[in-house]
């Protein structure tokens, strides 16, 4: 059996970007052109948006991704320890609310 090459990699921060760029989902099926076009349109809008600063973007990414892996109490303390603003009520409700 051969090892997985980089085109079949499904882990890591840029795995989805690689798949989108190739137009192929992780299972090898083509991503429908309508989905790719809509994604590209929205990403082009985002690319043109004025940024509020690197620290704000870093915090947003930490919260968005960290909430998937880290408990609310722990993530909140980690933010405070790193001198970021603690979790906001709306972030807690969105990421940790009852599902």
TrEMBL record:
Protein name: DUF4090 family protein
Organism: Gloeocapsopsis crepidinum LEGE 06123
Organism placement in taxonomy: Bacteria, Bacillati, Cyanobacteriota, Cyanophyceae, Oscillatoriophycideae
